[in-house]
Amino acid sequence: MSLKVYVNGAYVDSEDAKVSVWDHGFLYGDGVFEGIRAYGGRVFRLEQHLERLYESALSIRLTIPVTLAEMREVVLETCRRNHIVDGYIRVVISRGKGDLGLDPRKCASPSVVVIADKIKLYPEEKYTRGLRVIISSVRRTSPEALDSKIKSLNYLNNILAKIEANTTDADEAVMLNSNGFVTECTAENIFVYKNGVLRTPGRYVGILEGVTRGAVIDLARRNNILVEETMINPHDLYVADEVFLTGTGAELVPVVSISGRNVGTGAPGPVFQRLLKEFRHLTQQEGTLIHSDVALTSVSASDLASE
Ligand code: PMP
Q1: What's the pLDDT band for 7 if we cut at 50, 70, 90?
Q2: Could you tell me if the CB of 35 is within 6 A of ligand 1?
Q3: Distance between CA atoms of 217 and 199, rounded to whole angstroms?
Q4: Is the CB of 234 under 6 A from ligand 1?
């Protein structure tokens, strides 16, 4: 059975889900997007993802032609039409159809696409054995050029780092900023644990502020782990007790080697294991119900705990 994809107001079969070659998302990467997960019939942190989407759009002066409340319903309805219980949702807003010049004033109306499908995670062995990563020679685009807090359709910089990882047979690439500080991987944030403190690069170092990153910081603090958002350099990674990555697709995934150096014991560490367990527990408890007459229904872990 064909997937149903939301394209500009209609739910169409996936083979009919098309945007124009004149769309400036295609011609120039002019647009924003989100990747969201559904677990057990609930959409995880839908509000946060939509907030980031609308903030990204605001930052690039792209007016999304549906309200945030309507978008929430479109996401849920796309899940319903595709019988999603556990899945991955992609929301893409591009500047829309224009001409061959890059002037966005030529684009009459932004394109809105929502896809809901099954997720292809890292294979399970990556969670038990860990990833081998490199430090990429490709620097993360400077926030002075394009703020990394905007989840834009411009991923070429990250893709070049991913290609470098692929060509060196690594699983992922750590990207540094122009001052040599660690920012993030190509589609995941990074955490470093050493001597009882969990550290992650701060929001002004040139990262996308991940929804998973936020959830992991909260979980760590609730578990009495000291968390610092700070500057991290490659040496800090090499000498860490543990390193792991976070992202909507990856959840939490451990790193066991960095540019040929073993991290800690060379196996996923206990802090990672504990936080992964906590995170997976959280995703089963919290989220916006896909099948509900009340579209806004959302149950948080703290609500459940207080019941
Ligand atoms: N950084 C980048 C560059 C990303 O593309 C992603 C994936 N959205 C992340 C970090 C992780 O963010 P999140 O936890 O919101 O998926």
Answers
A1: very high
A2: yes
A3: 9
A4: no
Q: CA-based angle 169:256:130, to the nearest 5?
A: 75
Q: 101 and 21 in one domain?
A: yes
Q: What average pLDDT does the chain have?
A: 94
Q: How would you classify the pairing of strands 189-194 and 197-201?
A: antiparallel
Q: Quick one: 106 exposed, middle or buried, by C-beta within 10 A (0-12, 13-18, 19+)?
A: middle
Query: Tens digit of pLDDT for each residue in 178-194?
Result: 999 999 999 999 999 99
Tell me, yes or no, whether 106 lies in a domain.
yes
Residue 31 placed within a domain: yes
Distance 157 CA to ligand 1 centre (A): 14
The torsion region of residue 101 among left (phi > 0), alpha (psi -120 to 50) and beta comes to beta
Write out pLDDT tens, residues 229-247. Answer: 999 999 999 999 999 999 9
Kindly give the distance from the C-alpha atom of residue 124 to the centroid of ligand 1, in angstroms, as a whole number: 20
Is ligand 1 within 6 A of the CB of residue 96?
no
Q: Are residues 71 and 197 in the same domain?
A: no
Examine residue 191 and state whether it is found in any structural domain, yes or no: yes
Split at pLDDT 50, 70, 90, the class of 1 is confident
Locus of tokens 């073993």: 262
Report the C-alpha gap between 49 and 66 in whole angstroms.
Answer: 15
pLDDT at 296 over 80: no
Indicate if 138 and 84 belong to the same structural domain.
no
What's the pTM?
A: 0.94
- The domain tally of the chain equals 2
> 176 near 195, Cβ under 8 Å?
no
CATH number at residue 157: 3.20.10.10
Give me the domain span that covers residue 43: 4-118
Pocket lining: 253 vs ligand 1, CB cutoff 6 Å = no
Residue located nearest, by CA, to atom 4 of ligand 1: 187
CA distance 167 to 154: 22
